[in-house]
Write a structure and sequence with these properties.
This is DNA polymerase iota. With about 475 residues, the protein is an alpha+beta fold. It is built from 19 helices and 14 strands. The strands form 3 sheets. The chain has a 6-stranded mixed β-sheet. A 4-stranded mixed β-sheet has the order 4-3-2-5. It has a 4-stranded antiparallel β-sheet with strand order 11-14-12-13, covered by helices on one side. The structure holds a DNA duplex (9 and 7 nucleotides).
DNA sequence: TGGGGTTAT
DNA sequence: ATAACCC
């Protein structure tokens, strides 16, 4: 049915289209302007083989806020605007504004080095993430107004699948408007646009939507950021960083390989982290080209079929992972790091502090956690970054008290957490911790399950049924009573 | 390295 | 419960 519609439109083609043949040099510098299977020269919607309207080619936008924490701080205190500003957590400058960057300050730089590079650097403490978190969700909510399919990545990045929005706008266009579609922002590598290529047109409309998103962020929230528009998440993310503060870039398919080639090392590929990079290097793979051409069989044997196939596809710029709507958070946690904690009393005090902040957040959220977890990091000279954790279900009578708004929950919760603590740390022996973290997860909405429904029975009998409806029968928590 | 998050095993 | 990934 979709193709019949497109076909009938072909016959009413605007004269403008007839005047500019598809192979006109002026229109397109790239090859393959027309596909042979579209002899009428008017490309239609890009549909999958079922033809039911679900697109085989997506339009994804990646939105990346500029030095997010620093922006939030400058909104909180406008006097900071125009000055070199760094946001400090412990002895690190975790991010800084562009004034500071011009003067040599970099992300995750030691405070000493930063002050040395830039003595005028103004520092604000950013260990309390509350305002950042709140602003972060305002951004996500604003983007959700464009399309509900928004996936968060950290506090300052979002992916939005705008395929449907683009299709709608495309269908709204009169045929004489289609040849007048323009790009908003940069085109990666300045590739020439071919308006006879439906993929180009869709991405250009995507760039216009991205511009509207950035405009809305600026007008409604006072925030600036970058955006990248491409046919998948990987490419959208990579291309969003090409022009850096407060600009946007669209990637046309013909420049995909160039974008990939612009990466200097496999470690720059999102999805290939520290561990995988080390294992790839051990195999002699360092560039993206190395990964592209490496034997799939051997890679699968070395890394496992799942990782191997995924990252090798990434090396070609292929990423079929969907934009998964994040929705409300799946967990709430607070952590504190320090040089040394070596007594139970000290630990208890810190845990109680973390708990107090978390209870406020839980209260605000409105849902109830059914699981609590305690995480520690032990001091160790060598062993890089290892955390241990213990978790248990929150007893029903404690869950009930969570919403009352008073502090009756604190003593029983501290009690549970200290049991978890002693299960991990032998307090009769000397110990040295450098981090404590408390996490509430397995969040359930308080929405009353209706009598007689499946949910009614599940809700009261299963503590491991997660919010999303996935079940975790295989994961058995230790109960607080077990200690 | 901070203070968070997610999914897969 | 841990390990990997992301910011």
């Amino acid at each position: 049915a979709e193709f019949e519609e497109e076909g009938s439109r072909d016959k009413e083609m605007d004269p403008v289209w007839s005047m500019e043949p598809p192979d006109a040099e002026a229109v397109d510098g790239s090859q393959g302007a027309m596909k042979p299977e579209e002899p009428d020269g008017f490309p239609g919607s890009v549909l999958d083989e079922a033809g039911h309207g679900s697109p085989s080619s997506r339009v994804i936008v990646h939105v990346d806020l500029d030095c997010f924490y620093a922006q939030v701080e400058m909104i909180s205190n406008p006097e900071l605007k125009g000055k070199p500003l760094g946001v400090q957590q412990k002895y690190l400058v975790v991010t800084c504004n562009y004034e500071a960057r011009k003067l040599g300050v970099q992300k995750l730089m030691n405070v000493r080095d930063a002050k040395e590079k830039c003595p005028q650097l103004v520092l604000v403490n950013g260990e309390d993430l509350t305002r950042y978190r709140e602003m972060s969700y305002k951004v996500t909510e604003l983007l959700e107004e464009f399309s509900p399919v928004v996936e968060r990545l950290g506090f300052d990045e979002n992916f939005v699948d705008i395929t449907e929005m683009v299709e709608k706008r495309l269908q709204q266009l009169q045929s004489d408007e289609r040849c007048a579609v323009t790009v908003s922002g940069h085109v990666y590598k300045d590739q020439s646009i071919n308006l006879y290529d439906i993929l180009h047109v869709r991405l250009l409309i995507g760039s216009q939507i991205a511009a509207e998103m950035r405009e809305a962020m600026c007008n409604q929230l006072g925030l600036t950021g970058c955006a990248g528009v491409a046919s998948n998440k990987l490419l959208a993310k990579l291309v969003s960083g090409t022009f850096k503060p407060n600009q946007q870039t669209v990637l046309l398919p013909e420049s995909c390989q160039d974008l990939i080639d612009s990466l200097n090392h496999v470690k720059e590929m999102p999805g290939i982290g520290y561990k995988t990079t080390k294992r790839l290097e051990a195999l002699g793979i360092s560039s993206v080209h190395d990964l592209q051409t490496f034997s799939s069989k051997i890679l699968e044997k070395e890394l496992g079929i799942s990782v191997a196939q995924r990252i090798q596809k990434l090396s070609f710029g292929e990423d079929d992972s969907p934009v998964t709507p994040s929705g409300p958070p799946q967990s709430f946690s607070e952590e504190d790091s320090f040089k040394k904690c070596s007594s139970e009393v000290e630990a208890k005090k810190k845990i109680a502090e973390l708990l107090a902040s978390l209870l406020n957040r839980i209260y605000q959220d409105g849902r109830k956690p059914h699981t609590v977890r305690l995480i520690i990091r032990r001091y160790s000279s060598e062993k890089h970054y290892s955390r241990e954790s213990r978790q248990c279900p929150i007893p029903p009578h404690v869950i009930q008290k969570l919403r009352t708004g008073n502090y009756d929950v604190i003593p029983p919760m501290v009690d549970i957490l200290m049991k978890l603590f002693r299960n991990m740390v032998n307090v009769k022996m000397p110990f040295h911790l450098t981090l404590l973290s408390v996490c509430f997860c397995n969040l359930k909405s308080l929405q009353t399950a209706k009598k007689g429904t499946i949910d009614y029975y599940l809700t009261s009998t299963l503590s491991t049924t997660s919010h999303s409806g996935k079940h975790s029968f295989t994961t058995k928590d230790t109960h607080a009573e077990d200690f």
